[in-house]
Amino acid sequence: MNRIALAALLPLALLTAPAAADPLSDQVRADMPSLMAIYRDLHANPELSMAETRTAAKLAAEAKRLGFEVTTGVGKTGVVAVMKNGPGPVLLLRADMDGLPVVEQTGLPFASKVRGTSRAGGETGIMHACGHDTYMTAWVGAARRLVAMKSGWSGTLVMILQPGEETSEGAKAMLEDGLYTRFPKPSHAIAFHDSAGLPAGVIGYSPGPALANVDSVDIMVKGVGGHGAYPHTTKDPIVLAARIVTALQTLVSRETNPQDPAVVTVGSFHAGAKHNIISDEAAMLLTVRSYSDATRRILLDGIKRIVRGEAIAAGMPDDRMPIVTVREAEHTPATINTEALTASTAARLTQRFGAERVLRTPAVMGGEDFSRFHLADKSIESLIFWVGGVPREKWDKAGGDPAKLPSLHSPFWAPDAETTINTATEAMVTAALGVLAKG
Ligand SMILES: [Zn+2]
Ligand SMILES: [Zn+2]
Question: In terms of Cα–Cα distance, which of 206, 139, 179 is closest to 383?
Answer without folding.
Answer: 206
